[in-house]
Amino acid sequence: MRLDVQPWGETMAELVTAARAAESAGAGVVWAPELHRNAFTTAAALAAGTDRDQDRHRIGIGTGIALAFARSPMLTALAAADLDELSGGRFRLGLGTGVARLNQDWHGAEFERPVPRLRDTVAVIRAVLAGGDPIIHQGVRSIRVRGWRRPYPPVRERIPIYLAGVGPAMVALAGEVADGWIAHELCPPSELRDRIRPALLAGRARAGSPAFDVVAAACCSVDPDPTVARRRAANVVGFYASVRSYAGMFEAAGFGAVCASAAEALRTGRPADSLGDLIPDAMVDAYTIAGTPDQCRTRIGAYDGLADAIKLSPPSYGLPAGEVRFAQDRLLDLVGSV
What's the superkingdom here (predicted)? Predict the structure, then answer.
């Protein structure tokens, strides 16, 4: 199973340094999220800062994930083509819808019918990347381009597209129209086995290509003291426990009361990334990989046979920069030892 990394950096230069360390440790892909930074700008920095030499280990570069509806599909396609050129054919376009509030309140983007809209988004991106004149797609989202052709030769015939998804319809869509699926940060092996893989297989049954990359994901907190490791990761779980969209998932696992406490703390003014003290160790263990190096290696091994790769990120929510740096160094040590 491939180990991927979502690197952290307080500055872009530090982020690139972390990506180089992940490359040296043997990581398969470094992924650029989109929350506090622009995913495409970060991916460009990672592509320029890592090795393009085809005779050596070449780490992949991906957006994990870029927002699909906050940009036009054509602009997304052009960014993907540019990044594939910049990276020497190492780019993977990871897209996700985000939630309704993020699209509407943060970006002024509509969020109606997300599944068919994402289907159309992928179709338009593929049409633009394929070239040709005219470029026409009719659907929930349409495009009609005449008299335009990208005058630069592509690095390769096909740029892989990955879709993030949580609900069964979105996961099945990924299986049907994408080249890979990227997990949410909270995706334990049981969730992958019991709920995600059946939906992916249903989508793959309708797909034309047999090749597909399943990328699990987890916050990975490594420390010689497992109690310290859990406490570093607890804010990640606390953040999601306070979000109404995830309440059903936590309630089904027996953590409904914790979610209620986290939501109440948020309403009273607590920052969303500071709720880790409300999260019991059992909940941290259920949704993150936290513990000693040996414990973390065992937890990563539980994904074997369920995923082709796992995207590991250091704990960062609500932690001072120095502590995140320490946690990331321990994570990279772990990647190099597996």
Answer: Bacteria
Convert 160-218 into a string of H (helix), E (strand) and C (coil): CEEEECCCHHHHHHHHHHCCEEECCCECCHHHHHHHHHHHHHHHHCCCCCCCCEEEEEE
Task: Give dist(CA 27, CA 220) in Å, integer.
Answer: 14
Tell me if 83 sits within 8 A of 53, measured CB to CB: no
pLDDT band at 248 (very low <50, low <70, confident <90, very high): confident
Q: Position of tokens 């001072």?
A: 320
Please spell the DSSP secondary structure of 84-140, one letter per residue.
HHHHTS-EEEEEE---HHIIIIIH----SSHHHHHHHHHHHHHHHHH--SSEEE-SS
As beta bridge partners, residue 29 has: 60
pLDDT tens digits, residue range 320-337?
999 999 999 999 999 999
Looking up tokens 């509509």 gives: 110
Write down the CATH number for the domain with range 2-227+289-337. Answer: 3.20.20.30
H-helix or E-strand spanning residue 328: helix 321-337
Length of the chain: 338
* Rounded distance between C-alpha atoms, residue 277 and residue 93, angstroms: 36
